[in-house]
Design goal:
13 helices; disordered N terminus; transmembrane helix; about 0% strand; mainly alpha
Length: about 300
């Protein structure tokens, strides 16, 4: 991260700077380990966020997470917005709005579905981006496999509309995730270092604030909820992004993509461990289908 790119590894008191200590610690871990830590960090954060739904509506939890994350990342990145052109602002604002909508729809899905199911369906977004970039006939096999996974996850025969609404929110979150990936690349080419992410999170916090503050009200000021919200922000945004950034500096992008394909399985596992959400055999089969589809697309893209 640019905030840690300092010439002198010692602070004024002669002690190691925290950023350099963290970088040294990260360098001692294999890059594949960093990616796995990032994946599990995100899913543990999602598990804690879902536990907050007992005290706050999903939209209020989203606001708490994004606002806390924007404060932390903004303090670390210290974005400088002078000199930005009109298109830069458009990309940055679009990035932030997409980030807000992605989180709002995902948390609404999370409130209605087991975490492993919600993440597996949402993962169709990045899978679709990978398929569109590859354009191979073999990708039709992976698309079919992912489609089978969604069919297996669908709550056929259930009378409650809640699960179907959750699936709709998860599919919407996947679409916004696809847009997030494309806009993230565009922002990365226009904003130095982590400035783009910091700018997007600030925009996202502003977008989510009206619905989040209205839904959460005075409960958003409860110290224990603020503390948990900070923990969710660190686990879901700050820590995984930092780990992924370090990993990408030391490993090929296709290997990174293959490891990220494990995210739905990690979400299902964390759902069991953190939330006690036991998936049945058909749901596990569906998650495996989607993971296998993502792995297949990623490996096929590398092969070309």
């Amino acid at each position: 991260m640019t905030a840690f790119a300092l010439d002198n590894p010692l602070d004024r008191g002669g002690l190691p700077r925290p950023g350099n200590v963290l970088r040294t610690a990260a360098d001692s871990i294999p890059p594949s380990g960093l990616v796995l830590l990032a994946i599990f960090s995100v899913q543990i954060g999602a598990g804690f966020a879902k536990q907050l739904f007992a005290a706050l509506p999903p939209s209020a939890v989203v606001f708490l997470r994004i606002a806390m994350g924007a404060l932390v990342i903004g303090a670390l990145a210290r974005p400088k917005l002078r000199g930005l052109r009109g298109r830069d602002w458009a990309v940055g604002v679009g990035f932030g709005v997409t980030l807000a909508l992605m989180n709002l729809t995902f948390y609404e899905a999370l409130a209605r579905l087991p975490m492993g199911v919600a993440v597996a369906i949402e993962f169709l977004g990045p899978l679709g981006v990978a398929v569109a970039a590859s354009r191979r006939r073999l990708d039709l096999v992976w698309v079919g496999l992912a489609g089978l996974g969604v069919v297996l996850l669908a709550p056929w025969g259930e009378s409650s509309a809640s699960s179907w609404i959750g699936i709709a929110f998860a599919l919407a979150a996947g679409g916004f995730w696809a847009g997030y990936i494309l806009l993230s690349a565009a922002a990365g080419s226009r904003f130095p270092g982590t400035t783009g992410l910091a700018f997007a999170m600030i925009v996202s916090a502003v977008v989510v604030a009206p619905v989040g503050v209205t839904a959460g009200g005075a409960d958003l000021l409860r110290p224990e909820l603020l503390l948990i919200g900070l923990g969710v922000a660190l686990l879901s945004s700050v820590i995984p992004y930092s780990l992924e950034l370090q990993a990408l500096r030391r490993m090929p992008k296709h290997v990174f993509g293959i490891l990220m394909s494990l995210e739905p399985a990690a979400a299902a596992l964390m759902g069991v461990l953190v939330l006690g959400e036991m998936l049945h055999a058909q749901q596990w089969t569906a998650v495996i289908c989607i993971v296998a589809a993502s792995l297949g697309v990623t490996r096929a893209a590398r092969g070309g």
